[in-house]
Target: 16S rRNA aminocarboxypropyltransferase
Amino acid sequence: MDLHVRYEGDDDPKKCTAKKLERFDMAALHGSDRETPYGVVLNPHADRALSPADADTGALVALDCSWESAGEAMFSLPGEHRALPYLVAANPVNFGRPMQLTTVEAIAAALVIFGEKKRAEGILSKFNWGHTFLELNEEPLRRYSECADSTEVVEIQREYLERGE
Ligand SMILES: C[S@@+](CC[C@H](N)C(=O)[O-])C[C@H]1O[C@@H](n2cnc3c(N)ncnc32)[C@H](O)[C@@H]1O
Model:
């Protein structure tokens, strides 16, 4: 699966995880919706949860922008929009918080759900906190990756949401 990022460029480029992936030739960055390939779009506002059933869509696309500007309207990209199920961030800015993942965490989570754990480890290895993301989320990611579809993913997510209440 090809990794793509619609790059908005309104965050500090020195801290941007997508820019770092580009430097290591691990993802392609695109400056407009038109240039961005059609695929599964990682969108926290999407109605449908990502599941292994989305694995054959070809391209995996994240939108790298600041969380301040990441409102629903920002996700105007054509594609199959999917929200990631309950996971917690390991990056230093949002450590331990659910759902607000960096671009690299979001892409890595999708790869694990699609059964590409080694590749997820590869992209996270470029960040000194990267392995912590897979450790913190080991159980939910394994269970999501064993689901057939979005309905099953949402069922499992419910358990984690109830525990967190
Ligand atoms: C808002 S940007 C912030 C990027 C940050 N500046 C960085 O350097 O990584 C993070 C992107 O990762 C994806 N993402 C993060 N959390 C997500 C979630 N819970 N569901 C779906 N996609 C998510 C989305 O594409 C989102 O736009």
